[in-house]
Amino acid sequence: MFKYLIRGFLAGITIKLLDRFRRLSVKVLEIEAAKVYVQGVRMARLSAIGLMRMGLKIGLIVVGALLFHAGLFILLPWSVESKAVLGMFLGSAYVAIGSAALHAAMDEKAWMEKSGIAEILEETTDRYKKNSPEGSGSPQSGSGCFDRDPGVKVGCQ
In the chain, what are the domain boundaries? Predict the structure, then answer.
């Protein structure tokens, strides 16, 4: 009888402790979710501001290019054919420069460095390595690298 009383008492204490741990874990999870939500709202705000700034800059560049070409073609005392060749040359130069700038702006590696995702993934993989029994890295590849895109190895040394 005394044995059952002690078991019941210990079971009650264990249930209370586990319930408190569960509540604490849920609160920590709610705090982390709120932090992620705030960071998401901040990133959305910064993205919207960046998009508006980019639109303004592109608009100013287009207006400036149009005014430059209009003034150039009005003031140059060249024939129509030579002005057309100059216009084609400037147009192709703008397309090449714009393509190079767009390629540089949309580079995945540059975005990962600027956004800090590489550090977050490295920190996460380091945490996984410390907590895993074999310490081998990601469960998919076993190399410690998350290689979703074969050209980009994130979290590798």
Answer: 2-105
Q: What is the C-alpha to C-alpha distance for residues 81 and 102, in angstroms, rounded to an integer?
A: 31
> What parts of the chain have a pLDDT lower than 70?
124, 127-128, 131-157
Q: What is the 3-state secondary structure (H, E, C) of the chain?
A: CHHHHHHHHHHHHHHHHHHHHHHHHHHHHHHHHHHHHHHHHHHHHHHHHHHHHHHHHHHHHHHHHHHHHHHHHHHCCCCHHHHHHHHHHHHHHHHHHHHHHHHHHCCHHHHHHHHCHHHHHHHHHHHHHHHCCCCCCCCCCCCCCECCCCCCCECCC
Distances (CA, A) of 90 to 60, 64, 70: 18, 14, 13
Distance CA 119, CA 107 (A): 17
Reported pTM: 0.46
